[in-house]
Amino acid sequence: MFSGIVESMAQVVAIDHEQSNIHFTLTCDFVEELKIDQSVCHNGVCLTVVKLVHLPDGRLGYVVTAMKETLKRSNLGLLAVGDYVNVERSMRLNERLDGHIVQGHVDLKARCIKVKKTNGSWYYRFQYPITPKKKRLGYTAVEKGSIAINGVSLTVCEPSEKGNAGFVSVCIIPYTYENTNFKYLKKNSIVNIEFDIIGKYIVKFFNRL
Q1: What CA–CA distance (Å, rounded) separates 144 from 190?
Q2: Domain ranges of the chain
Q3: CB 158 within 8 A of CB 142
Q4: What's the topology of domain 108-207?
Q5: In this predicted model, what pLDDT tens digit does every residue of 18-75 receive, in sequence order?
Q6: DSSP 3-state assignment of 174?
Q7: In 3-state terms, what secondary structure has residue 14?
Q8: Contacts of 81 (CB under 8 A, 6+ apart)
C-alpha cells in the first residue's frame, strides 16, 4: 500500500529479458536501505526487490521483475537504460496519509495530449481508452477526486468522456515537477494511471443493486 507521495526518482541502469518477463536494475538515493522482498512502487507499479547488486561504477543497485500482465498494463515495457521512474516505498501505518490510498496496481496506460506552463505551475491533459467493461470496474475519474499518475497522487481536473476515450487533467506545482519524472513528460508520453480504489468499490456496489 502506498500514498502517492513520491520519495525519489530511480534511474534504470540495465534491462534484461527472460521469456515474457523483464528484469530491471535501478539505483536511487535510498537503495542502501532496501531489503530483498521489499515492495517499491515504480511509476505507480508495485514491484518486489529480488536482488541487490554492485554496479560497475561502484554504486549499489537493485533488481525488480515485471511480468507480462504488468508490462501490458503499464509503461514499464517502454523504459530504456537511463530513464527515470518515480519510486516510493510502502506506507507505514503510524504516519499521516498525505496523498491517497494507492495500491500500486496500475489500471491502464494513458497518453499525454497537452502540456502547458501556467503561472509557475504545469498543466497536463491525458487521454485513455474506455469501454463498458472498464466503466463497470470503476475506471473513471471525478472532478476534485484523486488519481495516481506514474505513482503520483494528484487531484483530478476537467474529467470528461467522448466516444471510446476518457480525458483527465492535472496541475503540477513546481516542487512536484522538479522531484518527479513529470518534468520529462511531453506530448505523446505514455503514463500509468491507477483510479481511486474507493471509487471502484462504490461503482461495484451500485452495479450489484
Answers
A1: 23
A2: 8-89, 108-207
A3: no
A4: Elongation Factor Tu (Ef-tu); domain 3 (2.40.30)
A5: 999 999 999 999 999 999 999 999 999 999 999 999 999 999 999 999 999 999 999 9
A6: helix
A7: strand
A8: 12, 13, 14, 15
